[in-house]
């Protein structure tokens, strides 16, 4: 509490001990984890807005027609995303109260971290084209809507150090 000297009014301020919650807004680039994929849409949880980690995750939905900018009617969401994939997406204007509407219809948006089915735990796939990723250990290839990653859009603090870094260091020796 403090008193305003001019008007002699008492001003009451409340400061939260928790960090302020950031909400995704239209046009923001978000980092999200895919939870459900079906023939019409992809559901995910939004973990970051830009470089800021959210206090709590929000639900996002990526409709089939918002996955790519071309061939919207022939897209198979399962050939673009799998549960567990980490994606970059842009927030579209909200149309539903409890879901953020997302889009990956830009070259810079899509899958940034993926694990192949049957790959060893913690081994991330490597992009080999704009529509395919490959496991460096098993050499299994899987279709994905791969993002052309711009490093400043990824918050590295969310992800543990990859096992592949140890392998690269061992190769140098």
Biggest beta sheet attributes? 5 strands, mixed, barrel
By DSSP (H or I, 4+ residues per run), the number of helices equals 1
Q: What's the multimeric state? A: single chain
H-E string: EEEEEEEEEEEH
Low-confidence runs (pLDDT<50, min 5 residues)?
161-173
Assign an overall shape: elongated
Q: Could you estimate the helical fraction of the residues in percent?
A: under 10%
Order of strands, main sheet, comes to 3-4-5-7-6
Coarse structural class: mainly beta
- How far the N terminus sits from the C terminus, by CA atoms, comes to 63 Å
Pfam family, one: EXOSC1
Subcellular location: Nucleus, Nucleolus
Domain Exosome complex component CSL4 C-terminal: 57-92
Protein name: Exosome complex component CSL4 C-terminal domain-containing protein
Keywords:
3-stranded antiparallel β-sheet, disordered C terminus, EXOSC1_C, 173 residues, 5-stranded mixed barrel, mainly beta, exosome, elongated, 11 strands
Short description:
With 173 residues, the protein is mostly beta strands. The protein is 6% helix and 34% strand.
Write a structural description.
The chain has 173 residues and is mainly beta. Helices cover 6% and strands 34% of the residues. The protein has one helix and eleven strands. A five-stranded mixed β-barrel has the order 3-4-5-7-6. A three-stranded antiparallel beta sheet has the order 9-10-11, with no helix packed on it. Strands 1-2 form a two-stranded antiparallel ribbon. β9 and β10 (132-134) form a beta hairpin. The longest helix is centred in the C-terminal third of the chain and has 10 residues, at 163-172. The chain is elongated and about 70 Å long. The protein starts with a strand and ends with a helix. The relative contact order is 0.16. Keywords: Cytoplasm, Exosome. Residues 57-92 form the Exosome complex component CSL4 C-terminal domain. This is Exosome complex component CSL4 C-terminal domain-containing protein. It is found in: Nucleus, Nucleolus. InterPro entries: Csl4 (IPR039771), EXOSC1_C (IPR019495), NA-bd_OB-fold (IPR012340).
């Amino acid at each position: 509490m403090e008193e305003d000297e001019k008007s002699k009014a008492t001003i009451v301020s409340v400061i939260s001990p928790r960090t302020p919650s950031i909400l995704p807004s239209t046009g923001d680039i978000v980092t999200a984890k895919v939870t459900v994929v079906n023939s019409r849409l992809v559901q995910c949880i939004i973990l970051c807005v830009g470089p800021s980690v959210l206090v709590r995750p929000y639900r996002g939905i990526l409709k089939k027609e918002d996955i790519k900018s071309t061939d919207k009617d022939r897209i198979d969401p399962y050939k673009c995303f799998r549960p567990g994939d980490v994606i970059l997406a842009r927030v579209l204007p909200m149309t539903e109260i409890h879901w953020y509407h997302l889009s990956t219809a830009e070259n810079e948006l899509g899958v940034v971290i993926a694990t192949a089915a049957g790959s060893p735990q913690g081994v991330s796939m490597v992009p080999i084209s704009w529509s395919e990723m490959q496991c460096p250990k098993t050499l299994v290839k899987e279709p994905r809507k791969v993002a052309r990653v711009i490093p400043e859009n990824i918050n590295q603090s969310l992800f543990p150090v990859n096992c592949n870094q140890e392998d690269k260091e061992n190769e140098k020796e």
